[in-house]
Amino acid sequence: MSALVPLAARTEVDWVALSVLIVLFVVVTVLGFMASRFKRGDTLDSLDEWGLGGRKFGTWVTWFLLGGDLYTAYTFVAVPAAMFAMGSVAGFFAVPYTIILYPIIFIFMARLWSVSHRHGYVTTADFVRGRYDSRILSLAVALTGFVATMPYIALQLVGIQAVLDVVGLGGGGNWFAKDAPLLIAFVLLAAYTYTSGLRAPAVIAFVKDALIYLVIIVAVIYLPTQIDGGWEGIFGAAKEKMAATSEATGKPTGSFIPVSGQMWAYATLALGSAMALFMYPHSVTATLSSDSRKTIRRNASILPAYSFVLGLLALLGWVAIAAGTQPIGVDGKPNPQLVIPQLFEDSFASWFAGVAFAAVAIGALVPAAIMSIAAANTFTRNIYQEWINPKATHAQEAKISKIASLVVKGFALVFVLTMDKQNAINFQLLGGIWILQTFPVIVFSLYTRWFHKWALLAGWAVGMVYGTVAAYKVVNPVTGKHFGGSLAEIPGFGDMGYVAMTAFAINLVVTVVLTIALNAAKVSNGSDETRAGDYFADAGDPRVEKDKAVREQTGGQEALPE
Amino acid sequence: MADLNRSGGPEVPSTNKTLIAVAGVLLAIPIVALLWVSSYARETPRLWGFPFFFWYQFLWVFICAGCTYAAHRLVLAARPPEAGSRGDQEVDR
What we know:
In chain A, 69% of the residues lie in helices and 1% in strands. Chain A has helices at 15-34, 47-52, 59-70, 73-86, 88-91, 94-119, 124-132, 135-167, 175-196, 199-225, 230-243, 263-277, 281-288, 293-302, 305-323, 339-347, 350-388, 394-418, 425-435, 439-447, 453-472, 499-520, 542-553, and strands spanning 487-489, 496-498. Chain B has a domain at 17-80. The two termini of chain B are 36 Å apart.
């Protein structure tokens, strides 16, 4: 076992680590194919079966599924990389984010589960459609979900790519050899999602979590003991690096602990990310696939266990600073995204490095699968069926979903290839800017119909445009590329803040002002197919059973709003 | 379609508003505490080598889990699930 000695750029493939990685991958793939039998219904050829696992998952499966969903390459690669390169404001906000997340979802998720259960909604756009009888508003929500998922999947691809790069794959002269790890990652992901639907990630999530916990426990116990001075030494090294002047900007490299002027950045990144997360189609899917209203709330109180782990992983970025890890890719260029895989490669025996790589790669694969399935569900139900082929059969729907899941992954690949991946955490933050603009439409509408549908649409549009433009204007000082970060000055305030929250505030103002105007002008706000009691329905509700019988008699078409 | 809308049944379950309010406060506590960054953005006192900023946030993982779980029990007590629905039983553990 080598000590924590930085290596020069690798030129050779670590065959032992690569073999272990491949074996574990094969095991997981076989499990994925077998997963189609797990708690299976009559056929996978329906959207409820392929996309929601038949809504039969209890507390434990939901816990693993949500965990598999939320703790991803983001946790293992992007957050530690941000800590390594830019410090706590850029990375450690993920800890308060994933803590305050649970009280926030506790408040509204049970209502969304109930009304969805009652009316057979599979996506948030379904709900909006039923709540306002507005196809346009529903389309806006569906499109946002579909688009915002792409950079988030891109982040997962970056994670898998990082592992393959550190193992020694890729490099070489032509573009194909250079991007080979990414293409391999993409093909793997596409292949097994296509076959098993949501059941594959649910089963694999168990394996993934077991691997991840094993690696984390070893990493956070063993690695700090290898650093002179233990945690004291680690924080000391980080403080020194963050205070040093960066050549590119002439400012300090990063932040050790947020100082005056950075408080808002830290708080808005945490709050914006937390509010955004459960607007994503994949988070909603994981929630709706649970078997009762209570499952969600019970989960909200046990899921924070993941946040603790996330915090320790974030700090591994600083362990790498103290260890002198050099994250240099096969192509010879420095790439902070490689820092955690490289730290593992330097400090663990090859075979265990292989296990750790498998944990990271599978930990990216599972959520990427869930995300693409969820985005595909949204596309099929709210775009294809609503606008293109309203008479689609269940089998057609499942088929379109599978194809759409490939398309969304294809776009994610484009994101990775065209955008600045030095700062992968920004992919997730960019998705957050977009998806957060659907928050008023979805969450406010769970409680009230005071907001006017056209006002909500206008607010959404303004928020989307503002957020995209503001994020575009952020230029990475090192690479000179646009979309270089997600923090911008809060207008009229001076401090930096997360663009998503600024856009959200503007969205809100537009929505409220227009609502008052439209309500005063007595413009119709559409019809509402939900009733107050629907928001409290639970599993086994007699009304739900009755409606289900009606739907089955009429071949399913009645389940959808016309 | 119309048939679905008309299906009747019980409406909003009776609710103990006080308990719901207490649950709301419990849920608000971790959110306010963690968003108030200036209250904990400092280095001392340290704990096992960890600056205050870091161990304090780790501590909130547990406090938040406690608050959320307490809120869960309170909401269940405030709005007992209807008899007959599966929510009134302890569904699979």
